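agent> Task received from the user: take the single chain below, predict its 3D structure, and emit structure tokens. No templates, no multimer pairing.
agent> Plan: (1) validate residues, (2) run structure prediction, (3) serialize to tokens, (4) report one or two observations.
agent> Step 1 OK, no nonstandard residues flagged.
tool_call: predict_structure(input=
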Amino acid sequence: MTETDTGTGTGTRAGARTDKTMTVQDVVSRLDSGMTIGIGGWGSRRKPMALVRALLRSPVTDLTVISYGGPDVGLLAAAGRIRKLVAAFTTLDSIPLEPHFRAARQRGAFELMEIDEAMFMWGLHAAANRLPFLPVRAGLGSDVMRVNPDLRTVVSPYADGEEFVAMPALRMDAALVHLNRADRFGNGQYLGPDPYFDDLFCEAADAAYVSCERLVDTAELTEKAAPQTLLLKRHSVTGVVETPGGAHFTSCVPDHPRDEAFQKEYATAAADPAAWAAFTERFLPADGDENSYRSAVRAWHEERE
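)
tool_result: status=success, residues=305
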């Protein structure tokens, strides 16, 4: 990186900046059946739901999904798109267990690699650093090793001789994340209390697609926020999509809280096949798009007033 190339899209080096703006459909057109896809966010917080909904409208299936799971996993599971899930949990936060995930697991719908949260993070770090694995203490002495018989341990080559879990790298073909702000070059900013691990998801993937609440000029990213909120640097981002409300119904603070009423409607419908069919027909039709989804949600809220 030269002195004139700051890494945030403001440099003057020839070719230093590339416009990476895309549409939701552009992103999904780059995803194929059989891929390993990482989905950022955490539980029912700052999930790239507009991208997930677009994925549901596509024919893409047979996916390996890597996620600190929430409704992203639930929706893909309900649609039968997951072949294997790698997760530490799958929750709606205020609703402890994602209902579609529970139903899919009860019927053995996909393979599951269930690991400790720290192991998951270390797998992301290993992938981001292009290492085959990283040693971690988490998981030792627990059933994690029993339910994941393919996991291995390693012994420190130093005098301590300590045994560790060799957490394999969680490499991905593509990562999908959602942030508060981004510029058209791929620099992404979170404004809430937690970055989660969206930067690691992007760095661990061959391609990374970022949806955001609002696209802004590069200079605006640091006008009112500290530089450390710039979570994603453009070198790790393939495409950027402006999707206001694109995390709905999960939270994306400070832009919007979780839509608790709608999340409850989602979870209630998930418990009954007829109710779920009506839910998907209204909110997730195969011929819909993000505009029709937002209109349907808005009408639903108006009916409740």
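agent> Step 4: summary for the user.
The CA atoms of residues 50 and 166 lie 35 Å apart.
agent> Done.
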